[in-house]
Amino acid sequence: MTPDPSYKDDLRKAYDADVARRDAMEPATWRIETIDRFSEALTEGAASTVLELGCGTGQLAHYLLDMGFAVSAIDLSPRNVEATKRRGVDAEVADFASLPYADASFDAAFAFNSLIHVPENELPEAFAEIRRVLIPGALLLVVVWGGTRHEGPLPDDWLDPPRYFSFYADDEIVAMQIPGFTLVDFTTRDDTEDLDHHAQILFFRAI
How many domains, the chain? Predict the structure, then answer.
């Protein structure tokens, strides 16, 4: 499905309007446990510079910052970026298609429930741009909602305007050929706040 080009504007408007509620939230236990697992792998690999792709209001970026990592972040929503900066994290307004960093700037990156908004036909370009700013061997954590296939806005989305979503069945996402990366681990979690989908947790290595 080819989305209407305005889908990014709709995402920006929806998340800008919801920033106060999200900024007041504490990350759920499963999110912290996933980031803890990521941080342990980063420590084992002597990684220090981390990029968050789609930071929301910055809670997870700040969590890693407190662990001693040098964290940068991007988000499509200017108000999300403002909230992230208030937490002391270096953040910029940008999207996956054009990251404002030089080649090989980071030892690692993570995208926590943000790549769900990238249409399937734009995923190769997004992953190529992510790969560009990572060093060879860098660890990339991707967390998305999935389990069933869906592409497009959700008709019953509780945010306005409705956001664009891409969800995949487990076998589909594992079988994807991701340019510049190799999949090293895939797990799912059902103990999340989403009652309609489970979390798909993927660890990639930059090659």
Answer: 1
